Amino acid sequence: MIDKFLHQLRITEPELQEEIRKNATITEHDRGEFIIKNNNYIKVLKIVLEGKVRVYQESDEREILIYYLNTMETCTLSLSACFEDCKSTVNAIVEEKCILLNIPVRFVHDWNFKYKSWNIFTINTFRESYHHLIHEYSNLAFQPLKDRLFDYLVSKAEQDIVYKSHQELAKELGTTREVISRLLKKLEANKQLRLGQKEIQLLK
Amino acid sequence: MIDKFLHQLRITEPELQEEIRKNATITEHDRGEFIIKNNNYIKVLKIVLEGKVRVYQESDEREILIYYLNTMETCTLSLSACFEDCKSTVNAIVEEKCILLNIPVRFVHDWNFKYKSWNIFTINTFRESYHHLIHEYSNLAFQPLKDRLFDYLVSKAEQDIVYKSHQELAKELGTTREVISRLLKKLEANKQLRLGQKEIQLLK
DNA sequence: ACCCTCTTGTGCCAAAAGTCACAGGTTTTA
DNA sequence: TAAAACCTGTGACTTTTGGCACAAGAGGGT
């Protein structure tokens, strides 16, 4: 399991491989479990070896998706916290049963200047996250919700089907269930999709 | 001028100082000049030694502020581009006459693993920008425009006064001039500020 | 079969934000 | 100093989004 991770991230230095094996732990988590909670200190960097984690911000009853962590991805905010002790400003919850690699923060920090491949990993994580977030940011600023919803469905579809409830979509897009229901109805009337129970089929 | 920069960023390695002096150029730019244009390739990392630069995204007639670059700050997106050749997705325009330090991208990339202080500079730039952007993102998602406007004024005030037109505020907050005018009127009626010509005085 | 929870649909109304149109200031500049 | 360009205010209207209430359907478990 770790080998696959080392390979995918192109971590080739034997010393670094050894350090990771020695200092990292592997844990399993079921759907619904919190990996990171808002306002808690971050002690370990978590890398998703398998499964899916949803990272979001909340405010009162609303939520908004920051990003999903898929296989071989790490939480950029945790990574950031490795460079300066700080509290989390987000929540992370397991969406699909997952296996995590946990690396205590002090190593993450040291390795950055010690191992070239770790340095690249760090920089790339920041870069990709930053670009992704800017993109989401301007979508949020410029696009009407209807478009954001449709784009989101397209991006999340597997074989043109999205298996999510309206409530889940609402939370990911930072709005309420009724609004999503109505917009979906409009999209259906527009023949852009077909609605089922917890199942949205994209057309064409 | 460069010395001040080296000192502020705690760049202590003599070799790196030497490299910067040798390879970087200094340029001056007047208000209104474009530093970076959307869709252009990024060839040099620009660091603001003096002055102020506004970095924003645009869509049709609308704009939205990504961040301001103040003294001794660099454009995170340019920094990112140093690690992979790519086009800019933003515009950067000079707001206050400024002096820039220009470093060709290939150096920026190499120095990251070669000089510890440069590595720290890079990581810190990414970290701070990322946190800032997440903060803006959830404001955009959760806060009504009226609150965003007021918070923005507070953050931009010098001695409780903001010297900006409604049009400028609209562009920075991603909305239209009329909306800003009306919200400002409400805030004035609410005794939170007093309106003048291109001048908004915050009260209390 | 029955209960409970989750899911979806929708009517009605309110608030927030955007658009269009126009009028009268102020500042810049030629 | 007169024209042009920018700045502010505002009425009237539309669209978008949100909040509340209620009803009906689906699905799971005991």
UniProtKB/TrEMBL annotation, chains A, B:
Cyclic nucleotide-binding domain residues: 8-70
SMART domains, alphabetized: HTH_CRP
Single GO term (MF): DNA-binding transcription factor activity
SUPFAM superfamilies per record: cAMP-binding domain-like (SSF51206), Winged helix' DNA-binding domain (SSF46785)
Swiss-Prot/TrEMBL keywords: DNA-binding, Transcription, Transcription regulation
Residue ranges occupied by any HTH crp-type domain in the UniProt entry: 143-204
Domain of life: Bacteria
One GO location term (cellular component): cytosol
Pfam families named among the record's database cross-references: cNMP_binding (PF00027), HTH_Crp_2 (PF13545)
Name used for this protein in its record: Crp/Fnr family transcriptional regulator
Organism: Aquimarina algicola
Organism lineage: Bacteria, Pseudomonadati, Bacteroidota, Flavobacteriia, Flavobacteriales
